Structures are given as structure tokens and as C-alpha cells.
């Protein structure tokens, strides 16, 4: 299957997914934007692709998650969706707040720890 998407003003389709799966989750879509999707496929053992489907329009309604700027001890990415602890003041890194309630009960959140401290030995705890 090939899934393509148009979401830029240029109007050019871009490949979003190429592979064997019949379902695919598209991530990192801009909010409050029309997205035009189309798909084509080829059967098992076939070499030719089907014609493109009739384009389908989807509209994103959720705003992207943003961390609150000015949180001491953290550096935010340009889109404020990624927060990294600052090495300059690790002891001052406190609570990190989001800009708005963009997630709700029942949604899955995934946190990725890129850097962790080495484990403490038992003797250092005594």
C-alpha cells in the first residue's frame, strides 16, 4: 500500500507510508489544517499498482502539545513540544507544566528518557 498526503500550500502529494500494512497512523500533523489523503495498492504477487483512490479530506482539530515557556532548569525545542533538562542548573529543575490541557483521560502518553544518572551503589546509600 502507498499512502500519500497533501497538507502544504504547494499542493504536492508526499509519500506518507509505503509498506504491507493496511492501517497506518499519521503523526505530526499541523492543527486546524485540511489534509488530503489518497491510497493505492497492489495485490500479493502482482507487479502493477492500482489506480489512486478518490482523495479524502481530513481535518485536525487538536492543538499540538506545548510545554510552558520559562520553566527553570529546562530547555524547550523551537515548537515547545520537547523539553530537555538543562545541565547548567540540574538541581533547580522543578515541575514542568504544559501550556494547556491538550491530553485527556484515556489517552496514551509516552515519555522517553534520553539520559539517566548511573545507578547508585548500596554503599553510597549508607
UniProtKB/TrEMBL annotation:
Query: What superkingdom does the record give?
Result: Eukaryota
Q: Which residues form the Fibronectin type-III domain?
A: 1-64
Alphabetical list of PROSITE patterns matching this protein = FN3 (PS50853)
Recorded hits in InterPro entries, A to Z, give: FN3_dom, FN3_sf, Ig-like_fold
Q: What is the name listed in the Swiss-Prot or TrEMBL entry for this protein?
A: Fibronectin type-III domain-containing protein
